[in-house]
Amino acid sequence: MFSRNNTQALMDANFSEAQHTFILREYRKFDSSGIVKQKAAATREHNVKKAETKHQKRQVLVDKRNTLAAHAAGVKIVTDIATLKEHSKAQLEDQLAAHHQFN
Questions:
Q1: 41 alpha-carbon distance from chain centroid
Q2: Nearest-angstrom CA–CA distance, 29 and 17
Q3: How far apart are CA 25 and CA 38, in angstroms?
Q4: Positive or negative: CA dihedral 6, 1, 48, 67
Q5: Which domain of life is it from (predicted)?
Q6: Residue 88 three-state SS
Q7: Closest CA to 73 of 90, 92, 94
């Protein structure tokens, strides 16, 4: 029970049998109140919500990336400098995204 952090050796060295019995009795009272189980349940619930939030954020990023990739896939790549000079800023950004898709 206490092997992970060598607590049993500490208790054997520093506590009398009466103190050890008292500690175990108090822990049993504490444990029977359900506080430990409530805390564990709250921690599990928090971890599940945190994982769901993380998954939702990741899904938003994936959807955005897929949308941008689909848009870039529909852009015709222009290599003529004269034609590129006539493009607007948005059209140039589309061209850049289309070129980055192949890298």
A1: 19
A2: 18
A3: 20
A4: positive
A5: Eukaryota
A6: coil
A7: 94
Please state whether 15 falls in left (phi above 0), alpha (psi between -120 and 50) or beta: beta
Residue entry with tokens 């955005």: 64
Q: Look-up: residue for tokens 């959807």?
A: 63
**DSSP code for 87:** S
Tokens of 59: 């899904």
Q: What is the mean pLDDT of the chain?
A: 86
* CB 39, CB 60: distance < 8 Å: no
pTM assigned to the model: 0.51
Domain residue spans in the chain?
55-101
Report the distance separating Cα 33 and Cα 44, nearest Å.
Answer: 19
Token readout for 75 is 């852009």
